[in-house]
Design goal:
The chain has 423 residues and is of the alpha/beta class. The chain folds into 2 domains: 144 residues, Aspartate Aminotransferase, domain 1; 234 residues, 3-Layer(aba) Sandwich (Aspartate Aminotransferase, domain 2), CATH 3.40.640. The chain is built from 14 helices and 17 strands. A hairpin with a 4-residue loop joins strand 7 and strand 8.
Length: 423
């Protein structure tokens, strides 16, 4: 069960209670990770323990509040290490990526003048599109949209250059597409945005479970994820450059201690978020690629973990794509050349089957104990651009590091059965 040199999948799976679920006497295959991954036992236990020993609001003079404050501080530092941030103070927690983006977009938009421009993309989840359209309507801004190359669902960077201007103030882009798995050249996009005098706002929700993040190396000004996409609870975590956060207008309750965290946080969820980072670091200390010294920093362990997980997932994705290519009536969307997977594809493979709706295919897979999403996954503009909205969108097969080669073979067999039965 050891696919890549670093990852012992059997040991990994033992840490996830949900992976023991069965349907009709067979283990369930979870390919629903892009909508929310399963969580390790330590995350479940940490959330429960928070309620037992630290359930209190912030800033109290008594033990449970002090414990809660310490847990929040530890989680903030953990996410800072995950992102490669300079300081835990640059991390802001919220309900999820969408809510954080709507909240911060109001502050960012207040810095712009009527006629200023925001650039978004056709490839992105609506959480990094709709908030910018909303603030543009409110403040008289202009939104321009980068096109895709429909043959492989990658961004058209020539179109990006054409859309940038002296009035561009912000470029909003996804690190990876949650619908078709495309990994965008974020560092290249950042350089182009900064050359035009614009900030870069990165939605890293779909990339975060699949590779190491370094906010400085990619040149981001803001970056946000949702922890429930990387083995944690339903919590969002935003990073912003300290100097920019200090400059932005605030929309907050007057006595609130934090300028960008509104109301009482989901403290038990934040505790679990810290535990999710600890889980990832433990993967690095045990299975890191290259091997990680057990005394190494948490950041080093996290990089080792994500690198090892990435290689395992790429092995699975290459086999999945190879097998799908042999099944009649299947079309794979996005980058399909395995030589490009390393830098251009997350292990999220979306397909259509000729004559079969995505929902019908997902239902057939569910009956076989294989859980996968269908639809547009809030990547609405992309699915419309591909001409698939009226047909129910895509069937999305989302691999993560706890999936196995045996599961991939089972999925291929099931899709082949669906295609042939419908033929």
């Amino acid at each position: 069960m050891k696919l890549s040199p670093g990852i012992d999948v059997a040991a990994i799976r033992d840490e996830f209670p949900a992976l023991g679920l069965e349907q009709d006497g067979r283990p369930v295959v979870f390919l629903d990770g892009p909508g929310g991954t399963q969580v390790p036992k330590r995350v479940i236990d940490t959330v429960a323990d928070y309620y037992r020993v630290a359930n209190a609001n912030e800033g109290g003079a008594f033990a449970t509040s002090e414990r809660s404050d310490a847990i929040l501080a530890d989680a903030r530092a953990a996410v800072a290490d995950l992102y490669g941030a300079d300081s835990p103070a640059e991390i802001k927690f919220g309900y999820n990526m969408t809510t954080l983006t709507f909240h911060l977009s109001r502050s960012i938009g207040a810095c712009f003048a009527p006629g200023d421009e925001i650039v978004v993309t056709t490839l992105d989840h609506e959480a990094n599109v709709s908030p910018w359209h909303a603030v543009a309507r409110d403040r008289g801004l202009v939104v321009r949209t980068i096109e895709i190359r429909p043959d492989d669902c990658t961004l058209d960077l020539d179109d990006l250059d054409a859309k940038l201007s002296s009035r561009t103030r912000l470029v909003a882009v996804g690190y990876a597409s949650n619908a078709v798995g495309t990994i965008n050249p974020v560092a290249d996009i950042a350089a182009r945005a900064h050359a035009a005098g614009a900030w870069l706002y990165v939605d890293a929700v779909h990339y975060a479970p699949h590779g190491p993040i370094d906010v400085h190396a990619i040149g981001a000004d803001f970056l946000v994820t949702s922890a429930y996409k990387w083995f944690g609870p339903h919590v969002g975590a935003l990073w912003g450059r300290a100097d920019l956060l200090a400059e932005l207008p605030r929309y907050k309750v007057r006595p609130a201690h934090d300028d960008f965290e509104t109301g009482t946080p989901n403290l038990e969820g934040i505790a679990g978020t810290g535990a999710a980072v600890a889980y990832l670091a433990s993967v690095g200390s045990r299975f890191g690629e290259p091997p990680v010294d057990t005394a190494a920093s948490r950041r080093t362990q996290l990089i080792g973990a994500m690198s090892a997980m990435r290689q395992h997932e790429l092995d699975l994705a290459r086999r999945l794509v190879e097998g799908l290519r042999t099944i009649p009536r299947v079309r794979i969307w996005g980058v399909t050349d395995p030589a490009r997977f390393e830098s251009e594809r997350a292990p999220t493979v979306s397909i259509t089957l000729s004559g079969i709706s995505a929902r019908a295919a997902a239902t057939a897979l569910a009956h076989a104990g294989i859980y996968a999403w269908d639809g547009d996954f809030y990547a609405t503009a992309l699915v419309e651009r591909l001409g698939l909205a009226g047909a129910g969108g895509l069937l999305r097969l989302g691999l993560v590091h706890y999936n196995t080669s045996a599961e991939v073979e089972r999925v291929l067999e099931a899709i082949d059965d669906i295609a042939r039965a419908s033929g």
